């Protein structure tokens, strides 16, 4: 059997350790003062605000400025555009017709409003079906009343605005030349 310390009477020997410790250091008799309450730990610093909205605004302004720089295309002009993440090599392959069009849309001869609606629907369907390269025939615009190719300029403007369009270029003459455009699309 364990012996009790001399200053603790044997009848208190079955108390728990914490009580025995307090009695041994004199906490029960008021000889020990309590420590002051510890201050709460400092709050974690708030994360610095992200500049997502500012970045989006800058991207939108840059894209809008890019559209302003695009002047009206003439009948013999080639369409050409690539996003920054697409290499010039990919655009050259597109221009040489090295990508096979998986689907084609012919807008030739349609009124501008109908052509725009049809083009938007076509691109949405192509994206949903996971197509990577498509051809859009817009015609050369030689018979346009305004002496400028209306559909060609419409297609150029609309394709530049779409986030799902990675690049586009007029194909070689054997695939439509300046009366068509090959378009690379983002796949879902």
UniProtKB/TrEMBL annotation:
Tell me which InterPro entries the record gives. Smr_dom, Smr_dom_sf
Ranges for the region named Disordered are 30-60
Give the transmembrane ranges: none
- Describe the location of the Smr domain by residue ranges: 105-186
| SMART domains linked to this entry | SMR
Signal peptide range: none
Q: Name one GO molecular function term.
A: DNA endonuclease activity
Ranges of Pro residues composition bias in the record: 37-48
- Pfam family name, one: Smr
| Coiled-coil ranges from the UniProt annotation | none
Protein name as catalogued: Smr/MutS family protein
């Amino acid at each position: 059997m364990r012996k009790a310390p001399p200053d603790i009477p044997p009848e208190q020997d079955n108390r728990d350790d914490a009580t025995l410790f307090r009695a041994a250091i004199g906490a029960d008799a008021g000889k020990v003062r309590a420590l002051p309450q510890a201050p709460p730990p400092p709050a974690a610093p708030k994360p610095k605000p992200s500049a997502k909205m500012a970045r989006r605004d800058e991207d939108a302004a840059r894209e809008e400025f890019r559209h302003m720089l695009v002047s009206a295309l003439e009948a013999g002009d080639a369409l050409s555009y690539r996003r920054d993440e697409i290499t010039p090599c990919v655009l050259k392959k597109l221009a040489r017709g090295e990508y096979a069009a998986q689907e084609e849309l012919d807008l030739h001869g349609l009124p501008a409003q109908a052509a725009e609606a049809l083009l938007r629907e076509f691109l949405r369907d192509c994206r949903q079906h996971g197509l990577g390269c498509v051809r859009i025939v817009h015609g050369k615009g030689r018979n346009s009343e305004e002496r400028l190719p209306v559909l060609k300029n419409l297609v150029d403007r609309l394709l530049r605005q779409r986030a799902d369009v990675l690049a586009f270029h007029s194909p070689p003459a054997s695939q439509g030349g300046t009366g068509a455009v090959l378009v690379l699309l983002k796949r879902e």
